[in-house]
Every structure is written in C-alpha cells, then in structure tokens.
Amino acid sequence: MTRIFNDPADFAEEALAGFCDLHSDLVRQVPGGAVRRRRSASPKVAVLAGGGSGHYPAFAGLIGAGLADGAVVGNIFTSPSAQQAYSVAKAAENGAGVVFAYGNYAGDVMNFGMAGERLAAEGIAVENVLVTDDIASAPPSEAGKRRGIAGDFTVFKIMGAAAEAGANLADVVRLGRKANQLTRSIGSAFHGCTFPGAAAPLFTLKDGEMGLGLGIHGEPGLFDTELPSATELGRELVSRGLAETPQGAGRRIAVILNGLGSTKHEELFVLWLTVAPLLRAAGYTLVMPEVGELVTSLDMAGVSLTVTWLDEELESLWTAPAETPAYRRGAAALLPGSADTEEAPDCAGAADVFGAGEGSRAYADKCIAALGAAREALHEAEQRLGDLDAVAGDGDHGRGMVRGIDAATAAAAGAFAQGAGAGDVLAAAGDAWADKAGGTSGVLWGAGLRAFGESLGDGQAPGVDELAAAVQSFASRIVELGHAEVGDKTMVDALVPFTDTLRRLAHGGGAPGLIWAEAAGAATAAAEATAALRPRRGRARPLAEKSVGTPDPGATSLAMIFSVMGPHLTAVRQPAGASS
Ligand code: ADP
Ligand code: MG
User: Which of 384, 441, 558 to mutate to test the pocket of ligand 1 (most atoms within 8 A of CB)?
Assistant: First the structure.
C-alpha cells in the first residue's frame, strides 16, 4: 500500500523530481527522465536504461559513472513515450552513439524503436539491447519473447562498464546481448503490489500461498503454490534457475537475490543461506553476488534469483567500479571529473503554423467533440478497463487511456485555437496521446490518430469515402507498428471488423451515421468475442490461460471509443445533390 502521494496521476513525476533534487550532485532532470550531472569531455557511448516507474532503483537510481548515462522514465509500469526516449537521448548523447537498454515489453520496444528512427534520421548512431531473462515468461524455444526482470541490472551494469572503459557502440551492444543470453531469472511473489491511490492490490494471493514466476509489473505468478519454508524456496529457485544453464557455460557466475519491494533484507539473507551453498555445491564460484533491491515492483512482496554465467570479459565488467545514487561498487575515483555537463539541448520544436480550409476548420470542431465524447466515456470506464487488464496484463489500461485522451483533448483544443484544420488537430491529439499515455495502447492510439489526421488533411471537410479512408489509415498504422493479426486478442480484433464494415457499407451508399453505427456494433461484438481467445501479443501473452473468459481490454476500449465518436465524426460533407 502506498500511503504518501498527492494526486496519484502525478506520483511518478513527483517521485522523479524528488529523486533528482536529492541526488543533484550526480543526476540532472531533463524532459523525459534524467541524465548524469557530469559527463566525460571525450566522446563516449551513451547507455540509456529505461522503462516504467515503480521499479526503483531501476532505472533512474542507476545513473552514474560505470553504469547508465541516463534513464528514460515512464509513468508507473508504463513504457515511456518515444518523445521521452528521444529527448533523454538528445540530452545524454556524447559523440559516440546511443544505446537504449530495456526489458522486452511491446510498449517499450515500439517507443524506443520510434525514438531510434528519429535519432537515426538526425545522423545519431542508435542501437537497442533488449533484456529477456525471465524464464517463467516463455519456454526456451521462444526465449526471444521472454520479458526482462532483475536481469536488467546485470545487463545494464555490464554495458555501462564497457562504455565507461571506452568501448565503441558495436562492442557495448555485443557485450550487452551476450550478457543477456547468459542471464536467467526466476521469481516468486507473496503479495501483490498496489498503485498509489488504488483501493486494492493489482493481484492477490491466498494467505499462505506463493505465486511462482511473477513479472515485475505485478503480472501474477504462472501458478500458485503453498508458501514453502525459506529452505524449500531457495531449493526451488536454484533448481529452476540452473535448469536452463546455457550450453558451454563457465563455472563462475554473477548472482542477484533481488527483493521486489516490501521483502526485508533480513528475509533475503535467510534465503541466501540456502541459495549460496546450493550454487557452490553445484560447482560454481559466486562473483560479487548482490542481495538487496535492484529491480522492484512497487510494494510487491517477493523475491527473484538471477544468475549470469560469466566469461573473462563479462567478469571484468561485472566487477568494475560504479557510482550511482542507488549502487556503489569499488573506487569512486573513476568519475570522469574532467568536464562539467553541458546544458541539455533544447528539444522543443518551433511553434507550428497552421493553414486550414474553412471546411476542414468546421470538421475540426466535430473532431474535437468526438474526442470529448471519448474522454467522457473513458473516464467513466477507467476502473473497468483497468480491471480487465489486471486479469492477465498489468492493470494500467484504464489509467493509460485516460492519460492519453486527456492529453489528446487538450492538445486538440490548443491546435484548434491556433487555427488548425481537422488533420492537424488529430495529429496534435495523437502526438500528445502517445507522449502522455505510455504503454502499448498509447503508442498505437497516438500513431493511429496521427495517421487518421494526415489522411484527412486540412483542406475541405471529408466525405464519407474520405472518412472511411482515414479510418483505414488509422488501422494500417496500428497493424504496421504492432504486427498483430485478427485472433491475437488485441485491439486489432475490434478494429478490423470496424474498418471492413465501414468500407463495405460506405461503397453501398446510405446515411453515414447509420453506417458508422453498424460498424461500431460489429466492433463491439468482436471485442466481446475476444473473451474466448488466448492472447498472442502484448503483456497478457505469458498469462494466456488466465485471460480466457475475459475480453481484451484494448479491443473493448476501442469499440467503446468508436461507438461514442460516431455521431460527431459522421457529420461529413454530403455529396452534391444529396438530400440529407
Ligand atoms: P500495456 O500492455 O503496455 O500495459 P495497455 O494496458 O494500455 O498497454 O494496453 C493493452 C492493450 O494493448 C491490449 O489489451 C491489446 O488490445 C493492445 N495491444 C497489445 N499489444 C498489441 C499489438 N502488438 N498490437 C495491437 N494491439 C496491442
Ligand atoms: Mg496494460
């Protein structure tokens, strides 16, 4: 239970600001996250860690010499936006390229990927290293789909040390990927974590039970079992961790016994008393093991065991000194010290200048009303959407959609006041949505709305065919970014029947309002029908079985939004000669 907060929606931002004030000797807050206060005077690869908030000391606590150059800080359990990643990268970039390092979650992959495209277009060399250490989240045959948990720390540490030692971008990436391939984690939870201001934990376990295979976003364990003794728990974690020993691995390992947020250090020490002897008995030398909190999950009670099989080059990087707010190892004298940081480059773009036709201005007003209707519906449904997402995902869908639509409506109104037409109004709404909502759905909705706006343009009001084409652009962009197909149990399951119905009926003529309502009905039915499916994409995939019986949250919200937007968006230009 989090007890100290103001407006829960501001919790992550306020926590970051407080952290940056406290550690102002080491870090500096920039738009989207934080970077090192001081950086080397000569070119150096910038290692940027990232992800949602709620995992302290990951990720901002790990900024400093020998570790990260900066952290991109999203909202709680929510991927940062592409804009955030871009702006932190611009502030941290130091002449030798940028590498984003993060756990393998769809929202993060898309947002860091889009930021990377933008940086590359500006001539900055950029790479991504994904962490996939959680053996419970997918079988070995699908190791690339696994999510990142406490192994984030090992991979970041090794990459940070390599960059500090002067390795070039390709080498830092190679070492990060090698460390990831040699890292395995397995965790268990005893009690769920609770969002600031939420009335109940994201998930619960029966008293005296433990969930094995938890994720760091409160994803429940893969199965629940009676709470074992410390010795039994230690045996379980070690045997599962070692069961996936990489082929040809050496006998020296880095080990992390990680507390998830509200597990006492003393409890971890008791557990260590089983874990360490078992690992040694298996023939391993433990190299600088860590016992403590390195990657947490708000106030979750639980623990994870991470093992990284070291070779010579990985060991020297794992044991290299580091000095960050949350983590110190070895001599601190390695701080570059020779140069102060420069001020972060100003990433804010110049003010937009809009030129729009009269028809498009009038239709922009309808678009704003449509967004307003969506806003009302999403506020009303916030809790329900969060509950749907908590069944097999991370429970943030309601909150993310509300943050997104709030930002979108504000940005749309701002652009309209400056003279924007329908296209620019929706593009501004999309950009703001992507920036503020975070999460997979936030990226997709943001990019989709921008594509919708670009398709409409700013000339005249659309006719029904142009409206159908704009909806098709929205859908295409979402499929292009998310790669989901019908049946994967995502928003695409509601989107495709919507666009198909709309296109079919638009060709046949008929009143736009009725056509849209029929398409929205098809989307709603399809969203409900996703209850029977098992998710094949997104955060819910590892818990596919638990999701059966519950409709997909993203499909549900999409159907809802399109339903309430209809009466406004269908106020389209009538063909010449039409009577209504
Ligand atoms: P996150 O999954 O990052 O926490 P949200 O909870 O806001 O983001 O959104 C979850 C929804 O996103 C899912 O219910 C699903 O409809 C949608 N989604 C997830 N992955 C994809 C994808 N690859 N393509 C399309 N939609 C997706
Ligand atoms: Mg979610």
Answer: 441
